[in-house]
Every structure is written in C-alpha cells, then in structure tokens.
Amino acid sequence: QAVVDFERLSEHAAAFQGHDVGFCCLGTTRAKAGADGFVRVDRDYVAQAAELARAGGCKHFVLQSSQGANAHSHFLYLRVKGEVENLVQAVGFDRCTILRPAVLLCKRQESRPAEWMAQQFLGVVARVFPTAYSVPVETVARAMVASVLQPGKEKVEVLENGDIHKLGKA
Questions:
Q1: The CATH number of the domain where 119 resides is what?
Q2: Structural domain boundaries enclosing 163
Q3: Could you say which of 32, 59, 81, 153 is catalytic?
Q4: Is 169 noted as a catalytic residue in this protein?
Q5: Which tens digits make up the pLDDT trace of 106-160?
Q6: Dihedral angle sign, alpha carbons of residues 106, 109, 113, 114
Q7: How many domains does the chain divide into?
C-alpha cells in the first residue's frame, strides 16, 4: 500500500508502476468538498490516477462510478461521474470495467443524515426488490474482483446495479 498526495499525484508515478489491474473507488461528496473539490476528486484525481496506472503498465482498470452517470446530465454528481467514465475509457486500457452501483448500503464513520435515511428506507425496499435501488458495498467489492477473474467480453464493460448484484454473488 502506498500513500500518495493527490494534489501532487504525478510525483508518485512509481506507486502506479508494475500493476496489471487497477481498482478505483475514489470519491467524495459535494457537502464535504464543495462543488470544485468534488469535481477535483471524483473526476480529476481519478482520471490522473488512470493515466498513471496505464503508463505504469496497467492492462485492466476497474472503476466504481454511479447509477445514472451521464456526461450530459444537468446534475453535477451524475455529470462528473459520466465525464470521468469517458476520460478513463479514453486512456486506452486493454480492458476497462465500469461499475454503476445504486445507493451503497454501508456503515459510515462520518455523519450523512440524508444518506442514512435513504439507507434505512432502501434497506427495507431491498428485502422486496433486492437489486432495484441499492447494493451492499461488499457486493460491489466482490463484483469488482470477479470482473477481473472472468474473461472480458468487450474492451469496455459497464455493469449496472443488477449486473453488480449477479456478479457479486458469483
């Protein structure tokens, strides 16, 4: 494990050398970082990390994005997620897997009241419609690993929430 300064990521290029696969779950919130900080973390840092990984020999990049990601969205969150998906694909990995989970079900250390309320509601909904609106983070992690262990069907594969549930249980 290497600790890097994302504000000076290019100075840490050596940390990205010699890896066949890269996993990226980097992200923040607009509430925590402000709009500019959110864009810097969720788009700029991720794109730069992908470029360094590719230059370091990475063949397969696995990116956690978001359900509804769309570079043309009017919503900042979804627009930035769509933009970063496009930027990562443009890096030119031999294989790129993009996961688009719905609301992540997890226990967080920091307080996010709106997300907590959504998780409580969606936890109940998930019992009836388990793949519709949410996904446990453990399922996303298993799907990320499973995507690497199985042969790729396409150069770029996008896994929506239902696909993540299926692959995360395999």
A1: 3.40.50.720
A2: 17-168
A3: 81
A4: no
A5: 776 665 676 667 666 666 665 656 666 789 999 999 999 999 999 888 999 999 9
A6: negative
A7: 1
